[in-house]
Amino acid sequence: MPRITRAALIQCSNPLSDTTDLKKIKSAMIEKHVGLIKKAAEDGAKVCCLQEIFYGPYFCAEQQVKWYDTAEPIPDGPTIRLMQDLAKKHQMVMVVPIYELDMTGVYYNTAAVIDETGQYLGKYRKHHIPHCHPGFWEKFYFKPGNLGYPVFQTRFGKIGVYICYDRHFPEGARELGLNGAEIVFNPSATVAGLSEYLWKIEQPAHAVANQYFVGAINRVGTEAPWNIGEFYGQSYFCDPRGQIIKQASRDKDEVVAADLDLDKIQEVRNVWQFYRDRRPESYTQTAKAIGV
């Protein structure tokens, strides 16, 4: 019997982009996503992933300590508890990226994974942290991830997470594949410019090299007062052959749902034996870098 998982991505704009009132923005974004999560469930999704730091604007466009107040512990914060309730209500696995408070003064860019019963399965912390002009001052807000590249066993497949800037680094994408990932989600906040043409290259390339499904999520719209550029949406799913099978628009709030045939992973790996033929012992510079 085919293993078909219907999965969903949510791309969303900030409904209060003209204000920097932290509590109002967070409340409005959560409320908006509750409706979109419901829509994903009504569309039959059994797995749903939200965009990077879904409950706020992309505040890394500036360096202000006030944004520390939006961080929450995982899993004991109010947002993750709400998402656990929604996962149980909709019987849907949820991947929920938020700003994580680990301890006083220590923060991570993190995605929590919750199963369809509402059980918290674990979290992934973003490893690669950019700090560059214009407007991506992430080292001011996040420590690099320290939990490795976990893969979460769910009823609907083995799920891995890579976050935004991570996608420029093939090593972690390979780690997720070696750890057994069948679907890798990459929640992002990416604006038009130098990296846009990479949006449809890098992640299909990861899917091909590692022969798994990828779900790439990007928010939409512009966000005042920074106006660092247009978040260009175009969230999509691609299959283990790197083919984009469903894609969202550039400028609209959208739920992107697609049926992922997980049996295709075995089918593709039977043809392209990349994991059999890889030669890690011969990649000498990589070995030196990790002290082997």
Q: Can you tell me about this structure?
A:
- With 292 residues, the chain is α/β, with parallel strands linked by helices.
- The chain has one domain (4-289): Carbon-nitrogen hydrolase (Nitrilase/N-carbamoyl-D-aminoacid amidohydrolase), CATH 3.60.110.10.
- The protein is built from 8 helices and 16 strands.
- The protein has helices spanning 22-42, 78-90, 170-178, 196-199, 202-210, 263-271, 274-277, 284-289, and strands spanning 4-11, 47-49, 93-103, 106-114, 120-125, 131-132, 136-137, 151-154, 157-161, 183-188, 213-218, 220-221, 231-232, 236-238, 244-247, 254-261.
- The strands form 4 sheets. It has a 6-stranded mixed beta sheet. A 6-stranded mixed beta sheet has the order 8-9-10-11-14-15, with helices on one face.
- The radius of gyration is 18 Å and the shape is globular.
- The mean pLDDT is 95.
Count of helical segments?
Answer: 8
Poorly predicted tracts of residues? none
Provide the CATH architecture: 4-Layer Sandwich
CATH superfamily: Carbon-nitrogen hydrolase
Assign the CATH class.
Alpha Beta
Q: How would you sum up the major sheet? A: 6 strands, mixed
- The coarse silhouette is globular
Order of adjacent strands in the largest pleated sheet: 5-4-3-2-1-16
Q: Would you give the CATH topology?
A: Nitrilase/N-carbamoyl-D-aminoacid amidohydrolase
- For this entry, what is the oligomeric state of its chains? single chain
